[in-house]
Structure formats: structure tokens, C-alpha cells
Write a structure and sequence with these properties.
By secondary structure, the chain is mainly β. The chain contains no helices and 42 strands. Strand 22 (240-249) and strand 23 form a beta hairpin.
Length: 479
């Protein structure tokens, strides 16, 4: 036995498995395993912002958006100032870092405001909640069905026959219910559970979650605890930032005790759930700290929630906050109006760690003043779409596509034994095997998979294995 190859089977180092390629894979490159069982070359993707695309050539207010994962479409709802301020919706299709829109559809032929939109992923329906100003300011909801580049609607249903404002909504995928939270006619924090059936929605009885003056509620669903979480300003407690956990049962909801996440006055709340860390992130304006944009990480336990120390993401006057979770990059993306920078549309990326969150440098996505930014995550194209009113662009409704910097190196499964064409099958030496299809290694050195897929002795979160020679590596199987 004169060299290492005498120890190995002819042609490779063992543990070869055949996979179907998603995208072209080169010879001797690191590959990652996809959720559908295919493999992809490990690559890094740079942060990118696409060009603005107009979805409504008129004054667009109360912009809100969601992603329909059944049709792989973005749905934007808004008040169309160019058409009698009617409630209107439009369908967006993401391609790369661009987005195109179908023809706008009216869902309410009257003046509306305080719009909120969510997606029922069980019945594949969109639900828009809003205040109907031409019907005594009643809280109202309507069900939409996306087909291609258009959307059709059922009949509007009143969920509160009294003045309603500051409306927010979410879909609880555990109970298969829509939950709407809002400020009711007397100013209390109110909520109601909706059940979608066909193209309609029915409601249970309203449940008060805050029996004091309540402002700017925002709601999210924690899929780890199967609870909803509401953030709001508590006018009954010095306007402190407050949160409460709700548990849906049937057509009703019950709540735990109120918990303060910010000891000062807050505003412009946006709460989202990080499914990677299983944490809830409250983003808001800290009015007692120069109106800085701030976030706090919450951990739900039963019907209670605890918080880490708040972290500033924008050291300037901030407003109109909208946060979403990018499950590909495992990052929080917050869109907002940066009043400290000419009201420009701005976004910041945050990474949750434990009970805290750290932020990158904010970036401008619109070099003009904006209103009503609404961020949603397109899980098909792995992009964030931010829709807003472009004050510098004739008040038109506008959207941009934001791509987070990311890498699939944490899905590393092995090294290709030869080049594999897209959709073709090919051999990969997987973890626990010995790949002899690499070059330039230093024997006895540990190698790591870098974000761009290369092997290096520089430590990363992904250990590839130990080099046995300049052309072979024993792939680690412990992770």
C-alpha cells in the first residue's frame, strides 16, 4: 500500500449517494440539501434592492400587503385616491428583484382606511380588514381569492358595528382562524376571531384585551407556542409599550396578563415572529428616547411573554414601521420612514440571538419621502417586498423587492463527484465519506464551508472535515 488511494474504493472515497440537482452543479463543489430532497451548489447571495415599480398611478394610502403562498403572489390592499378613495387590491408577481402588477380590483366601493391584510393558508384565501367610513366607520372584513394576476371578492362582513380604528390582523394556523385586533369605539383594545368559509367570513364575539385607551396595536402569530401576540401603547399605564398573549379556542380568544416591553411611551408598533429562533420581535418608536426606532425580543411561555433589553435600530426620529421575517436568511427586515433623513424609505436587517437582536447598517430603499411602508416575505422567491406611498413620486403606490444577503452553506451535505446538469441525477460524496474530488488542501488541516461554498481553514459555522491529502477530505458526519 503506497498511498491513500489504496485505502479507498476505485473512483471515490465511499458514501456516494445519487441526488437530483436543482440548478447546475460543478465538479468537486460543495452542495446543500434542499427541503424537497434535491441538492444545490452552496453559494452566497448579495444584498440587493430592485427598482421601484408603481402599482397605482394615484394617491395611495393605508397600504398593506401579504403573501399568498398558494398562488405565489404578493397582494397589496390600499385606498385609491384616484378612484373616490375606494378600497382596492392588486396582485404582484416577483421575478428576480423586480415585481410586476396586474389590474387593480375594487373590494369596497366606498371610503376606507385602517386597512390590514392577512393570508389564510389553510383555505388559500386573503382576508382584508378595514374601517368603512361610509358605513358609520364600522369595522369590516372581506375575503379575496387570487387567480393568476387578479383577485375576486366575496361580500363584505361587519365585525364591529361601531367605529373601529388601528386595525391589525393575522392568521392563526393552529386554530385555522383569522384574528383581528383594533381600537374600538370607546378606545379599548378589542379583538375578534374570524372563520373563513368559501368566499365569506363569520365572527365570534369580541373580546377586550386591554380595558384602557389603547393605541397602534400590532399582532403576530407565534407558531412555536401556537399563540397570538399583540403589542400596543397602553394609555392606562403612562402609554408604555405593552404586550399580551392570546390563545384562540373555537371562535373566541382568551388572554394572559399584560407585560411591559418598553418602560417609556411607544408608538408605530410592528410585531413579527422569527421562526428560526422561535422569538417574537417587537419593533416600535421609543417616544421617550428621541423617537428612535427600537426593537425588543420576546419569548412566549404559556400565555405570558418575557423580554430582553430593547435595542435601537435607527438613531433618529422614526415612524411608519413594518417588520417581516425572511425565513431564507433567518433575519428580521424592518421597513420604516426615516424622519431624521428627509422621511426617506429605509430598511434595516436584524438577527436574533437569544433574547437580543443585532442590526446591520440601515439602507435607503427610496430616495424620497414615503408613507405607509408595508413589508411582506415572498417565500417562493425568497425575497422581501416593501410597498408604500411614494411622496416624492406623485403619491403613487409603489413597491420594491429587497433580497437579503444569504447563504445555503448550513445545508451542506457533501461534495459533488462530477458536474451535474440542472434536473439531472448525479453522485455526491456525503458526510461521513471521503471525497477525493478536491484540490489544494493541506493534509491534517480542518476545513470549513464558507458562505460562498469554498473550503477554507478559516472557521465558519459549518465544519466540512479534515484533509487527508491535497486532494481528499474526510467529511465530518457529526453535524
Amino acid at each position: 500500500m503506497s498511498n491513500l488511494t489504496d485505502l479507498l474504493p476505485a473512483g471515490a472515497g465511499g458514501k456516494q449517494v445519487s441526488f437530483v440537482a436543482s440548478g447546475t452543479i460543478g465538479n468537486g463543489v460543495t452542495v446543500g440539501l434542499n427541503s424537497d430532497g434535491t441538492v444545490t451548489a452552496v453559494v452566497s447571495v448579495a444584498q440587493t434592492i430592485g427598482s421601484p415599480a408603481v402599482f397605482e398611478s394615484a394617491n395611495s394610502q393605508w397600504v398593506t400587503s401579504t403573501f399568498d403562498s398558494n398562488s405565489s403572489k404578493v397582494v397589496v390592499a390600499y385606498r385609491d385616491g384616484g378612484n373616490s378613495n375606494y378600497g382596492t387590491a392588486v396582485i404582484g408577481t416577483v421575478s428576480g428583484t423586480s415585481i410586476s402588477f396586474g389590474t387593480a380590483v375594487v373590494f369596497q366601493s366606498s371610503l376606507i382606511d385602517y386597512t390590514s391584510i392577512t393570508f389564510d393558508s389553510t383555505l388559500n384565501k386573503v382576508v382584508i380588514a378595514y374601517r368603512n367610513e361610509d358605513n358609520f366607520d364600522y369595522g369590516t372584513a372581506i375575503v379575496g381569492t387570487v387567480s393568476g394576476d387578479s383577485i375576486s371578492f366575496g361580500t363584505a362582513v361587519v365585525f364591529d358595528a361601531a367605529a373601529s380604528e388601528h386595525i391589525t390582523s393575522i392568521f392563526d394556523s393552529n386554530s385555522n382562524k383569522v384574528v383581528i385586533a383594533y381600537r374600538n369605539a370607546v378606545g379599548n383594545g378589542d379583538s375578534i376571531v374570524g372563520t373563513v368559509s368559501g368566499t365569506s367570513i363569520s365572527f365570534g364575539s369580541g373580546v377586550i384585551f386591554a380595558s384602557a385607551q389603547t393605541y397602534e396595536p400590532s399582532i403576530a402569530f407565534d407558531s412555536n407556542s401556537n399563540k397570538v401576540v399583540i403589542a400596543y401603547k397602553d394609555g392606562g399605564n403612562s402609554q408604555k409599550g405593552t404586550a399580551i398573549v392570546g390563545d384562540v379556542s373555537g371562535t373566541s380568544i382568551s388572554y394572559g396578563s399584560e407585560v411591559i416591553f418598553e418602560s417609556g411611551r411607544t408608538d408605530a408598533h410592528s410585531v413579527t415572529f422569527d421562526s428560526n429562533s422561535n422569538k417574537v420581535v417587537m419593533s416600535y418608536v421609543d417616544e421617550d428616547n428621541s423617537n428612535y426606532g427600537t426593537s425588543a425580543v420576546g419569548t412566549v411561555s404559556g400565555t405570558s411573554i418575557s423580554f430582553g433589553t430593547p435595542v435601537v435600530f435607527e438613531s433618529g426620529t422614526t415612524n411608519n414601521i413594518s417588520a417581516t421575517f425572511d425565513s431564507n436568511a433567518n433575519k428580521i427586515v424592518i421597513a420604516y420612514k426615516d424622519i431624521g433623513n428627509s422621511n426617506y424609505g429605509t430598511a434595516v436587517v436584524g438577527a436574533v440571538s437569544g433574547t437580543s437582536i443585532s442590526f446591520n447598517t440601515p439602507i435607503v430603499f427610496e430616495n424620497a419621502a414615503v408613507d405607509y411602508p408595508s413589508a411582506t416575505y415572498d417565500s417562493t422567491n425568497k425575497k422581501v417586498v416593501i410597498s408604500y406611498r411614494d411622496i416624492g413620486g406623485s403619491l403613487y403606490g409603489t413597491s420594491i423587492v429587497f433580497q437579503n444577503a444569504s447563504s445555503n452553506n448550513t445545508s451542506f451535505i457533501g461534495i459533488s463527484d462530477a458536474a451535474i446538469s440542472d434536473t439531472a441525477s448525479g453522485s455526491v460524496t456525503i458526510k461521513g465519506g471521503i471525497s477525493t474530488n478536491v484540490t489544494g488542501l493541506t493534509p491534517n488541516a480542518n476545513y470549513y464551508v464558507q458562505a460562498n461554498g469554498t473550503l477554507s481553514t478559516t472557521a465558519s459555522d459549518v465544519l466540512a472535515g479534515k484533509a487527508l491529502s491535497s486532494t481528499s477530505i474526510n467529511l465530518d458526519y457529526t453535524t
